[in-house]
Amino acid sequence: MHTPDGHTRTCGLIGNPVAHTQSPLIQNHLAYVTGQNLVYLPFPVAYGDLEAAVRGALAMDFLGLNVTVPYKSDVIAYLAEIDPLAERIGAVNTLVRCPGGYKGYNTDMPGLYRAMRQEGVEIADRDVVILGAGGVARAVAVMLLDQGAAGIHILNRTADKARAVAEEINGMAGRPFARAYALEDYGQIPGENWLVIQATSVGMHPHVEQAPIEDPAFYRRVETGYDLIFNPETTRFMELTREYGGRACNGVRMLVYQGIIAFELWTGAAVSQEVADELYRMTTQALAQQPSKGADQ
Ligand code: ATR
After folding, report:
1. Interval between CA 165 and ligand 1 midpoint (Å)
2. Ligand 1, atom nearest to 161 Cα
3. Distance between CA 8 and CA 294 in Å, rounded?
4. What is the per-residue pLDDT across 43-94, written as a single tens digit (0 to 9) for each?
5. Using alpha carbons only, what angle is made at residue 59 by residues 68 and 258, rounded to the nearest 5 degrees?
6. Which of 74, 106, 201, 209 to mutate to test the pocket of ligand 1 (most atoms within 8 A of CB)?
């Protein structure tokens, strides 16, 4: 690793809380293996201090920042520029230095897409089921539209929120692409061999015994159950998916790839598949050693 010197560039994570983040591990390892003179640190930012934090980073010429809960939408107000994808998603998790300030990007959804490709999960021309209708589920819906899914079925505890997301996505698509359902109405979804993306917070540590749906009739129709949660490593949703013959994935690869894409934006360096796989193993191991924690990024 480079010993920090007068040329060292600084990047970091702003959020609240940030204490359990895996991003310093991911980013400092990337800096090491690619030989970049860069350090990455966590910065807890108190409520009300977001603007000051972004201005401070600029004043100190930070190369970039990651942004996590609860600031991914609020930070948009303090950007000099925003990438069109991040604007459509309405959430920014990466800031890159640009003339006059920072440009905001969303690397979570490109990260999920790369993770799914890496794991051989096909999206194109496929009907996809999304569990949840919060900020993450909405972002997943935009990604699926962009990546050529045939259609999406959004299931949510609060059916009105599923309807609102479906309407918005259909507006973007300019055609009927998304349908909304109450969580218990999965019987109305056509077809078999579903790809299901689990985008609710149900089953996240410490509520590890919970799954958004328990019914075997649902899981019998799941071919791939993709949970965006990465702590615990195996959620109840993933267990149920496997129990009824499906393939299950967790959110660790997405976590790793959102970091890799941010690093590529900051440095212009290309990260190899070998390094990505190594980071996947390292992050899985680090999360296992810290079982009681759960934080975005
Ligand atoms: P995020 O930004 O992570 O998406 P969010 O916007 O708060 O967070 O969304 C959380 C999602 O998890 C929502 O879809 C929420 O369902 P509601 O819209 O009905 O609140 C879902 N969720 C949270 N707790 C749940 C529970 N106990 N059962 C079912 N769904 C739940």
Report:
1. 13
2. 18
3. 30
4. 999 999 999 999 999 999 999 999 999 999 999 999 999 999 999 999 999 9
5. 25
6. 201
